[in-house]
Design brief:
The C terminus is likely disordered. The protein is built from 2 helices and 6 strands; from the N terminus they run βββββαβα. The longest helix has 15 residues. By secondary structure, it is α+β, with helices and mostly antiparallel strands. A 6-stranded antiparallel β-sheet has the order 1-2-3-5-4-6, covered by helices on one side. It has one domain. It starts with 5 loop residues before the first strand and ends in a 6-residue tail after the last helix.
Length: 109
């Protein structure tokens, strides 16, 4: 897959941060900021998450798109590089709980 297969589109029709698209296909990866929004998992979608602390992201593709799973990781990697966070960790689980627990000070008794 070439780096220029993807491009960024800010979609007014979606309530998300960005949409990564792939030239010549219907592939759409919706990007949500977990630090700025109250993201909830959508039905009929595949979700992956990105941890680039202090910024956390959710990535979502529709199960109706047969290319979704095949290109999702490549699109996330492209997006992370595009926004200047090439070391972003891609996760299967929502990192917000760990992030909140890790950000609280430890109090001794």
């Amino acid at each position: 897959m070439k780096e220029n297969d993807f491009y960024l589109s800010t979609e007014i029709k979606y309530n998300c941060l960005d949409v990564v698209k792939m030239w010549g296909t219907d592939f759409e990866l919706k990007v949500y900021s977990l630090t700025d929004t109250d993201y909830e998992v959508a039905e009929n979608c595949i979700e992956l998450y990105g941890d680039s602390r202090p910024d956390l992201y959710a990535f979502e593709v529709s199960l109706d798109d047969e290319l979704s799973y095949d290109y999702m990781n490549d699109a996330i990697t492209w997006y992370a590089s595009h926004i200047g966070k090439p070391d972003m960790e891609i996760l299967r689980t929502d990192p917000r709980e760990d992030f909140l627990e890790g950000s609280l000070p430890k109090v001794g008794i």
